[in-house]
Structure prediction request, 189 residues.
Amino acid sequence: MPDTVKQQLFQNPYRYKDEDGRWQRIPKTLEWLWNPVFFRRPQADLVRNRDYSFVDDGQVLSINTLGKRTKCTFEGEHFAGYLNVSYQFGTAKLVELKGRWYLHIPVTKAVEDFQKECVRHVVGIDRGLRFLAVSYDEQGKTKFVSGKKIATKRHKFQEVRNSFRPKGQNQRSANSKPFLGERTVGCLM
Prediction:
């Protein structure tokens, strides 16, 4: 990554006018940075067959880096089924989390068009607050999933949270900022 930063610094030099009115140009180096380069969540987008590919019959992953192409093994026991011709891989995202690197690969597969004649059973499901879910099918069967237990648990923990706050202070007043209408604005006449 430092080579990339060096290149960016070189492309944007420090410019100033001297006493004669001529523009002077000083190329920047890594010493111009006030803070060291640090990435909180390093990640990269990798294009299939340009930045990443599978070699050795899908046993090894080859990734293009700044220096050279790196080959690494991966845990892909469930992945072998996706390596046939019917699946297409998209642009992958390489992310780091807690010292481990993960490669997220989107996969698409062409499927046949929807055939209305093949449908045997239709069920509609509606999610809600009072009832977590309500289902209804073409035969008139209705099923309600009550949310009373979850609402009771939510209310209980809300009371616990409120017990930790100082008296007379509710959640809204603790987190709210003054509205524009509440500010006093002076005007000149």
Summary: Residues 166 and 174 are 10 Å apart (CA to CA). The helical segments are 2-11, 148-164, 171-175. The chain has three helices and 13 strands.
